[in-house]
C-alpha cells in the first residue's frame, strides 16, 4: 500500500512537468541525485527525530522513487515538484521543500507583464474550491461560487494534484495553506496563461483574464502595520484585538500598540476581550510573552514543557555536543504582572482557525493550559506539539530550499491529547466572512 501511494505522488509530479525553456535549462541527473543525497544528509544532521510524524520506512521508499525520477534531466520547477511530493509525507508545516524567493519571483513576474490565477480561493481537503475574492483580496461578484472545472479539468483533480505538493500537519491545514497560495502552485505546475476557462458548479461557464495584481499572500507582507494588527471596541463592553502575526521587525511598535489597546480596554470598562489569532501563522514568542501576557496573566507561564532537540553547529555547549539529541524540560517561566494597572480581569477568548500555527499555537496552548482564556473557533488543523527552530538549507545544484526544524516542544501541560488544537467553544468559521465567528461568539455570550 505504501509503495502504491508513493507511486501515485511521484506519478502526479511527473504528469505536471511542462517542457523546459531556454531560460530554465535542464539540470543533469547527477546534479539532481546529488541534491537528493545532500538533502537527506541535512535532515539527519538537523532534525532530532526524522521519523516523528512519518515512519523512516515511508521516507526511504519515497526517496527511492524520487531517485528513480532523477535519472533523467529536468528543469528546476520540475525538480521542485518531484521533491515536493515529500511535503505531505513530512506532515509538518515547519518542514518542506520550497521554491526560493517565491514572493520576489511573483513580484518580478507581475512587474514584467505576467499574470496569475485570477482568484483568491478556499480549497477543501476533499478538493472543493470556492472563490473568496479577486486575486489580491478585492471583492468579487463570484464570491461563494464553487468552481467545477478549470480549463476543462475537474477542479478536484487539480486540487488533489496541488495538495500532493503541500506541507502541513494535517490534510485540512494543507488545504488551508494551498488556499492562500493557489496562484503559486498553479503557476508552477500548469503555467500562467493569459486567460482561464472556468465552469462553475451551477453550470455557468466564463473566461477570465489572468490577474496582474499581487496575490494577498505577497501583498500582506508589504509594509503596513494595520494589515497585521487591529483593535476595536465592540458593543456590550467587548473589545477585539486582532493579531495576524508574531513576526514584526519593530517589537517596540507592537508593545506600544498593545499597551494602547489595554489602556482603551481599561478606560472603556471592557468586560469581554476577544483576541483574533486565526490568521496568525506565528513568528517569535517574545511579542506575546511581553506584549500580551503582562495584561492577562495571573500566574507564571511558560511556552511549553518537555522538549527534544538536535544540537547543531553554533548551538553546542560544554554539556551538549554537535550531533547530540537532547531531551529536556522547559524552565523559562514568565512572571505575571499582578500590579500592572492595565491588567485585564474580565473574560478573555482567543479565536483560533485555519492558519493559526507555530508561535501562534504556542500562544494558544499557554492561554488554554493556564486558564488565561478559552479557545474559540474551528480546530483540528494544527498539532499542539509544535516543531521549531527551523533551519533553511539551500540545495547546491537546483537552488531549491528545504526548511528543517531542530526541536520539538510539548505544550505546557505536557499532555499530548488531544493531538490537535481543540477549541473550548467550537464555532463555524466562514472563509467568506471573518466577522461571522466574532458575531456568533458575542451572541453566545449575551445573557
UniProtKB/TrEMBL annotation:
The keyword Signal applies. The keyword Cell membrane does not apply. Pfam families: Peptidase_S41. Residues 1-22 form the signal peptide. Keywords: Signal. Residues 239-426 form the Tail specific protease domain. This is S41 family peptidase.
Amino acid at each position: 500500500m505504501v509503495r502504491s501511494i508513493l507511486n501515485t505522488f511521484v506519478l502526479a509530479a511527473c504528469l505536471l512537468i511542462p517542457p523546459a525553456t531556454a531560460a530554465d535549462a535542464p539540470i543533469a541527473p547527477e546534479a539532481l541525485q546529488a541534491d537528493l543525497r545532500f538533502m537527506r544528509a541535512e535532515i539527519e544532521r538537523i532534525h532530532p527525530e526524522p521519523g516523528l510524524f512519518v515512519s523512516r520506512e515511508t521516507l526511504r521508499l519515497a526517496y527511492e522513487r524520487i531517485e528513480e525520477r532523477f535519472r533523467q534531466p529536468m528543469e528546476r520547477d520540475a525538480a521542485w515538484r518531484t521533491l515536493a511530493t515529500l511535503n505531505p509525507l513530512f506532515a509538518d508545516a515547519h518542514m518542506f521543500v520550497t521554491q526560493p524567493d517565491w514572493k520576489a519571483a511573483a513580484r518580478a513576474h507581475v512587474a514584467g507583464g505576467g499574470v496569475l490565477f485570477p482568484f483568491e480561493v478556499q480549497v477543501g481537503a476533499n478538493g472543493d474550491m470556492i472563490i473568496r475574492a479577486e486575486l489580491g483580496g478585492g471583492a468579487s461578484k463570484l464570491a461563494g461560487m464553487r468552481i467545477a472545472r478549470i480549463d476543462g479539468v475537474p477542479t478536484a483533480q487539480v486540487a488533489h494534484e496541488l495538495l500532493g505538493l503541500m506541507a502541513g500537519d494535517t490534510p485540512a491545514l494543507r488545504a488551508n495553506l494551498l488556499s492562500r497560495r493557489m496562484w503559486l502552485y498553479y503557476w508552477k505546475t500548469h503555467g500562467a496563461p493569459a486567460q482561464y476557462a472556468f465552469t462553475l458548479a451551477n453550470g455557468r461557464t466564463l473566461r477570465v483574464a489572468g490577474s496582474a495584481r499581487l496575490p494577498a499572500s505577497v501583498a500582506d507582507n508589504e509594509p503596513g502595520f494595520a494589515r497585521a494588527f487591529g483593535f476595536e471596541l465592540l458593543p456590550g463592553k467587548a473589545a477585539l484585538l486582532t493579531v495576524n502575526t508574531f513576526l514584526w521587525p519593530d517589537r517596540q511598535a507592537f508593545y506600544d500598540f498593545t499597551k494602547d489597546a489595554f489602556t482603551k480596554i481599561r478606560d472603556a470598562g471592557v468586560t469581554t476581550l476577544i483576541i483574533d489569532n486565526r490568521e496568525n501563522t506565528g513568528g517569535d514568542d517574545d511579542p506575546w510573552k511581553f506584549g500580551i501576557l503582562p495584561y492577562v496573566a495571573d500566574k507564571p507561564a511558560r511556552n511549553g514543557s518537555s522538549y527534544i532537540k538536535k544540537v547543531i553547529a553554533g548551538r553546542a555547549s560544554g554539556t551538549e555536543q554537535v550531533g547530540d539529541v537532547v531531551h529536556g524540560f522547559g524552565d523559562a517561566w514568565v512572571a505575571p504582572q499582578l500590579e500592572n494597572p492595565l491588567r485585564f480581569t474580565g473574560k478573555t477568548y482567543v479565536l483560533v482557525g485555519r492558519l493559526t500555527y507555530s508561535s501562534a499555537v504556542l500562544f494558544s496552548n499557554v492561554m488554554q493550559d493556564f486558564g488565561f482564556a478559552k479557545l474559540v473557533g474551528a480546530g483540528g488543523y494544527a498539532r499542539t506539539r509544535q516543531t521549531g527552530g527551523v533551519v533553511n538549507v539551500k540545495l547546491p545544484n537546483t537552488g531549491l530550499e528545504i526548511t528543517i526544524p531542530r526541536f520539538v516542544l510539548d505544550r505546557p501541560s505536557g499532555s499530548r491529547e488531544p493531538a490537535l488544537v481543540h477549541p473550548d467553544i467550537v464555532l463555524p468559521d466562514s472563509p467568506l466572512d471573518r466577522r461571522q465567528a466574532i458575531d456568533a461568539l458575542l451572541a453566545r455570550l449575551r445573557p
